[in-house]
Amino acid sequence: MKSTFFLALGLAAALLSSPASAQSKADKTFITEAIQGNLAEVKMGQLAQQNGGSDEVKNFGKMLETDHGQANTKATQVAEALKVTVPTEPSAKQKKTYDRLSKLQGSAFDRAFGRDMVADHKHDIAQYQKAAKSKDPNVAGYASESLPTLQKHLQTAQSMTQGRKTSQR
After folding, report:
1. Which alpha helices (H) appear in 17-136, and where do they start and end?
2. Structure pTM?
3. What is the set of domains in the chain, with CATH numbers?
4. CB burial readout 126-150, b (16+ within 10 A) else e
5. What's the N-to-C CA distance of the chain in angstroms?
6. Mean pLDDT of residues grouped by 10 in the chain (169 residues)?
7. Which of 27, 37, 14, 158 lies closest to 97 in space, CA to CA?
8. Contact yes or no for 86/80 (Cβ under 8 A)
9. DSSP characters for 129-162?
């Protein structure tokens, strides 16, 4: 009888530490970082509109502000469904990037901003592709729905940086 009890206890412990709980931890981490990323992109978009030297960069900044603001509303709903504390500001690393870029103006800003946006959106796309495979339909849905916008942002950032390279020759 004792061994049956301990076997049941062991099974219960195994179920509680199963990949499902690891998946939910990954989902919670993803949605927290997604919200921080959206908040950061809104601020970066605003900064691009202020400090950008070209209309292309300023327009991209407006796109970032609008798209990531809308995405954040959806991400916040997913976070609430997962019972995750919703972040209210970007991560420390994102703030540091903002601070660095805020000291630049005109074409110097445009070059640094473009490079950062390419790297940032490549990273984000990889994270969102992984999250789109989540077993949680809210997380998977949010990630899948966001991917086309992130890919559009990456293409825009790449075209901005390509244009800068050719115009500098």
Report:
1. 19-51, 55-81, 92-102, 106-131
2. 0.84
3. 21-167 (1.20.1260.10)
4. ebbeebbebebebbbebbeebbebb
5. 81
6. 45 44 84 98 98 97 98 97 96 97 97 97 98 97 98 97 58
7. 37
8. yes
9. HHHTT-SSHHHHHHHHHHHHHHHHHHHHHHHHHH
